[in-house]
Amino acid sequence: YRPATNLVFALTVLLVLSIVLEFFLAALNLLVQRHYPEIFAGEEVASVTEAGIALVLVGFSFLSILISIAGLVLFFVWIYRAHDNVWALGAEKLEYTAGWCVGWFFIPFMNLFKPYQVMKEIYQASDPSADETSWPLVPVPAMLALWWVAWIVSALSGLAANRSTEIYVLSLFLAAASSIITLIVVRRIHANQQIKAHGGEREPAKQIPEEQ
User: Fold this and answer.
1) What's residue 66's pLDDT?
2) How confident is the model at residue 210 (pLDDT cuts 50, 70, 90)?
């Protein structure tokens, strides 16, 4: 068992940054659309102010894309580690391997439902109350289905984001919602694995030695 504490911390930082940037970009795009619609209309920029606003939009959009890509890569690394830890914690008769837990995200058509099944297996097998063989009986929370729906809808809206400012803003809000739910799911699974690794109990807090 290899604790994913540092990995989860780094992923949390990236997801939080991504969420903040997505909300900021959504609000900024709405303001620019309202006060400087010519920027989105493809018209020639007529002032230094408009040029500066356009550069800010491009700059923050590029930064958001970079952070999203980094977060996605780290998320795949976490999935690999989380499933590897499931094996280490003793779960038996698992359907997937750690490698395929990541691989299913890249197989056309299969990536519409397999990643959800992968996350479901990781969640159930990480539950502290489940033993080596009873983990498939662990109830799956609605949060997991919500995570996958948000992931799919966010991805589809992102593909159509270049059609209009309104769709782009909607895609940003959906991406932020997806990131929030992903963060909740990741941290919950990590917490469950930590509890399970320590015998079903939370790690005891360090005691301050009493003065003699």
Assistant:
1) 96
2) very low
